[in-house]
Amino acid sequence: MQHIHILGICGTFMGSLACLAVAKGLRVTGCDANVYPPMSTQLEQAGIELIEGYGPDQLSLEPDLFIIGNAMSRGNPLVEEILNRGLNYLSGPQWLREYILPGKWVLAVSGTHGKTTTSSMLAWILDYAGMSPGYLIGGVPNNFSASSRLGETPFFVIEADEYDSAFFDKRSKFVHYQPRTLIINNLEFDHADIFDDLAAIQRQFHHLIRTVPENGLIIMPTDSEAIDQVLERGCWTPQSRFSVSSPAGQPYWVAEPLEEDGSHFAIYFERKKQAELNWSQLGRHNIANGLAAMVAAHHVGVSPEISARALSEFKGVKRRLECIYESPAVKVYDDFAHHPTAIETTLAGLRARVGQDHIVALIEPRSNTMRMGMHQQHLGAACNSADTVLWYSPEELNWNIEALVHSSDIPTEAHPDLAMLLDRTLALVKESANKSGQLHIVIMSNGGFGGIHQQLIKSLEGSY
Predict the structure, then answer these.
(1) Range list of β-strands (E), 272-368
(2) CA 278 → CA 122, 266, 271, 296, distances in Å?
(3) Burial class of residue 441 in the structure, from the number of CB atoms within 10 Å of its CB (0-12 exposed, 13-18 middle, 19+ buried)
(4) What is the mean pLDDT of each run of 10 residues along the chain (464 residues)?
(5) Distance in angstroms between the alpha carbons of the first and the last residue of the chain
(6) Which pTM was predicted?
(7) Quick one: CA dihedral 7, 13, 17, 18, positive or negative?
(8) 3-class secondary structure, 415
(9) 40: how many CB neighbours lie within 10 A of its CB?
C-alpha cells in the first residue's frame, strides 16, 4: 500500500484530496500548523493520522511521497529536510492530475466568483441524473456528506482555482486538471498577494484554455470583456454562451428571472423555452451559477428539464448566505464574501428577498487582497443594499478604513475590537425590537471572524 504524507492537510482543498487518496486505497498521514475540528474530525474519521506542526522528525514515517500544500514555503523545517534529502514530493494539483484524473471526463468550474456554488450545483445535477460523479469542491455542499468523493463513473467535477499550486510551481492549480468541460463564470482582479494585475490572471486563464481539447466545451457569459480578451489570444475549443440579462429571444442559453429575488426563472436555449425552475437560492448571481451548471450538464447529456428538477432540490453550500440562526425577530447568516462583487451580489439578492426589512452587514476584510486595500474604492458602493455596515478594522489592515466610513452612502462604522463589534451589533438588535419585520444580520468573511458567529448566536438565544 502506497503511503503519502500531506503537508498542510487541514485546508479544505488538501483535506478533500486526502479523503480521495484514502478512497483510492492509499495510506494517508498529514500535518498542519493547527489541527482542530471540524476538518481534523473528518480526517480522523477517515483513518488519517494527524500531526501538529512541521517537525523534521516526521521523515521517520518514511512515506513513498510527500504532497506539499501551497501554504508551505521555503524555510519550513519539514520542507527544508525533504529538499535536503532529495525525497519525492508533488503539489496537490499535480498529484490529482497523475493519480485521480487520468481517464476521467473532467468538468472544471473556474472564475473569480461562484466556483464552489456552481461546482456543487453541477455535481448535484449529475448525481440526481444517476451519473454518480466524482468531485472535489472547496466547500461543503449540503446535498452531500463530504467535500470530495471518487465517484463510480468517468465524470469528475472539480472546483478549478486560479491560486498557485505550490512554492515550487507557480502555475494556477487549474492548469493541472485538463478539463473537457470548462466553465469560466466571470473574471476580475483578485489574489493581489500573487498576481500583479488582471492581465497576470488572464495569462493563467489562457494557459487553462490551451489545455481544453477540440472535442470539449468552454462555457462562459456573454458580457465579460475580461474573458473575451483571454479568448482573443487563441481558442481551439467550441464555446457556449449564457446570459441572465439578455432577452429570451437570443440564440444562446438565457435565464429569464420571473421573481425579483431570483427564486423563480425560465431557461431558454436557441430561442426555445427549455424549463422553469423554482428553488431556495436567491440573487441573479445564483441564477447565473445555476445556468452555467445546467449548460455543463447538458454537455454530458443531462436535459435542462432534469437539471431544473435537480436544482429545485439544491440545498446550497455551507457559508454561502447560510442561515445559522433564526427567531421571529432576527435572522443571522454566514457568508464567505471576500470581494466587492461577491458582497454586492449577495446583499442585493437578500434585499430582493426581504424587501424593507433591515439588513446589517458585519464584514471582516480578511483575504489578502482585502487586507492590502486593493478594492477599497469599490467597497462602499458594494454594501449599498444593506441598511447598516459594521466593519472590523484589525491593526494589521494596510489601508485607512475611516475614509471608507466617511464616504459611504449608508450608515457605516469601523471597530478595531471584536467585543466592541459584537456589542454594537446587539445594540442594533435591541433598537430593531420595536420595528416591523425581521432584522437580517449577514456576517461576511472568508475566515473564522474570531468566532463572532457563535458569540452572537449565544447572546441572541433566549433573548430574541
Answers:
(1) 272-278, 322-326, 330-335, 358-363
(2) 17, 9, 21, 20
(3) buried
(4) 95 92 96 80 88 96 97 96 98 97 98 93 98 93 92 97 94 96 91 82 96 98 96 97 92 94 94 95 92 98 98 90 91 86 87 92 79 69 92 81 84 90 92 85 88 91 72
(5) 55
(6) 0.86
(7) positive
(8) strand
(9) 19
